[in-house]
Amino acid sequence: MTTHKTDEEIARQVQEGQKELFGVLIERYEEKLKRYASKFLLQRQDAQDKVQEVFIKAYINIQSFNVSRKFSSWIYRIAHNEFINAIKKRSGESIFFFDPDTIFPHPLSKEEADGAVTRKETKELLDKTLEQISPKYREPLVLYYFEDLDYKAISEILQIPVSTVGVRLKRGKEAMRKIIEKDEQRP
Amino acid sequence: MIHNNHQDCVKQQIMNAIEEGNVIMKPKWHFVLKTSLAVLGGVLIALALLYLVSFIIFVMWYTGSWFIPVYGIKGIISFLLAAPWLLVAVVVVFLWILETLFRHYTFAYRRPLLYSTLGMLGVVMIGGFTVAQTSLHQTLLVRAKNNKLPIAGPLYKQFSLRYINDIHRGMIKQIIENGFVISDKWDQPVEVTLTPETRFPYGTDFETGDLVVVFGEGEDGQITALGVHKVGSQRMLVASTSSQQMRLQFMPKKGM
User: Fold this and answer.
1) CATH 2.60.120.260 for domain B165-232
2) B202-226: per-residue pLDDT in tens?
3) CATH 1.10.10.10 domain span(s) along chain A
4) B175-200 residue pLDDT tens
5) What topology is assigned to A100-185 in CATH?
6) Where are the domains of chain B?
7) Which residue of A114, A142, B90, B241 is 20 to 30 Å from A35, comparing CA positions?
8) Which residues 161-180 on chain A approach chain B with CB closer than 8 angstroms?
9) How far is Cα A4 from Cα A33, in angstroms, rounded to an integer?
10) Residue A18 forms contact with B (CB below 8 Å)
């Protein structure tokens, strides 16, 4: 019965008291969030704990979810906050509190249409270099290339302008290329 | 957090915790209350901003510093020195708080910070100018002067009646040979001496009862004016007594 229902419909039913349906939402998002966490946090064990925390927070706060909006953006936003806090707690990795990219308008607001081959290649290269890319650029790259989210959805999750998503993706890919070039130059 | 074997199914662990009541959903009213408080806070901060911006404009108008930049570099320096920077800093902090509150809403974060900040600043400035045009601050200042304004009274006295070295605002009481006598903010007579260097950006058509701003250093009730201009109506001060016109013919400025 619930398999044909949208996430938003299920979330509304959970809000109305059908707690057991929350399990359907977990089923739908567990793998996605685990992938997001492992790629962004770069620690699989940590990722599992964090995803559990995300679902618990989502359940506790589900009454704040507006069913006219997308559930995926809402739960990814919770995940983003949880993962950012995890990175902040972890020593050695710098995190962005203030981003000048969000202040000024950028002309790069159009979504780049990667070809299927280019996208696959980029994903493979990212897999090798992600851990060397700063969290600021790593996160949009993970959301775009591994979670297949569009600029608008990423903008909602990170709560930044759509044009800034484009800027971060561009800079993230530039960082990736530099890392690859450096690796190639090594004897 | 639920501490169990990581190999266990995440779904099962969470559903068990929900079933056993270890994880409890927050009620709808909790979020409605939270949002209402945020909206109320936003509205109060916006109102405080309108009040502060209009008060800054009023203070600068009342002290005369608002009009001084027309006198060139010296005027701009005096304007900057006379600006109530403490109040400006409070406005900046309030704007930052408001921006932080708005930043979680789609209409704000979808656009660059510059746009939302400029938008807010624009609204606050227009609102501030509008409020400054009303008699609100003048009425409150009169009450403060009469010690009938308990909380905001010191604020009005401190900012509106403060002495600014080279900016003097007052009403022309008497025209004299080399200038005129004005009554200042404390109703004290101040003799203004005009020289060939004195600038009149808006003309020399003065009469008793006019409100003027005099730019120039003053000492012992005497000012040598570097610039003088009429600021128009008598809205901000007590009504004039005499309207006897005494046109002044000043020597033209050097080099003009």
Assistant:
1) no
2) 888 888 888 888 998 887 788 999 9
3) 100-185
4) 888 889 998 877 888 999 998 889 88
5) Arc Repressor Mutant, subunit A (1.10.10)
6) 28-158, 165-232
7) A114
8) 161-164
9) 21
10) no
